[in-house]
Amino acid sequence: MSFELNRNAFKHGLAAGQLQIGLWSSLCNNLSAEIIADSGFDWILLDSEHSPNEIPGLFSQLQGMVRGTATPIVRPAWNDPVMAKRCLDIGAQTLLFPYVQNAAEAKRAVESTRYPPQGIRGVAVASRASRFGRTPGYLGKANSEVCALVQVETREAMNELEAIAAVEGVDGVFIGPSDLAASLGHLGNPAHADVQAAIKDAVTRLKKVGKPAGILTGNEEEARRYIEWGYLFVAVGSDIGLLAAGSAALAKKFK
What we know:
This protein is an alpha/beta fold. It has a single domain (9-253), classed as Alpha-Beta Barrel (TIM Barrel), CATH 3.20.20.60. 43% of the residues lie in helices and 16% in strands. Strand 1 (20-25), helix 2 (30-37) and strand 2 form a beta-alpha-beta unit. Helix 2 (30-37) runs parallel beside helix 3 and helix 4 runs parallel beside helix 5. The longest helix has 16 residues, at 193-208. It is globular. The termini are far apart.
């Protein structure tokens, strides 16, 4: 039995300029991943940078998301080729690399997602990514469906924004509001006017060079403003935020 390579709906949506709404997932649980993946979002980010999420857990979360509406995105803990390779081998097709500071680091991120000669991804012939060897020609097709996103989240990286965005193979640039706020001297306050101005400036500059921009916020007003500014992949909340707010609201009704 053989299977066709999975089509990366998120990557094709970005290329077509479609707005895609996502949710951040930090619960590190396959059951919660399955629930939110079938809630109607376009994408779900499985975080391993700021969550205790390792490869076995990510593997089970990806399995749980198979039937959902949302494309899974994995954020490796760092811009590291070994971490990227392991995430790709377990079936992730879209990776968000944190803390990319310049074009050289963006190039390194892209190369870690591509098989040679376009990159340095190590070859496994029977991984989950190829349906355990049952996808004919997987090695020759995989690069075309892999999506590489890079995260810009410091003053220094913002100065290099166009150069980062211009790297071949970078499919989108994600602006990290919390770390950007810290870098700009406003730790814990991404709503500060200076930070918001930088966020607006970033999407304006990215639109000029034709590169999709992404961002995360748990604030509905901010999310709608970012969409109006031109952000194309926007996370509008997190599973932890939903659980915390929902459970607190329920308890409050009875106490």
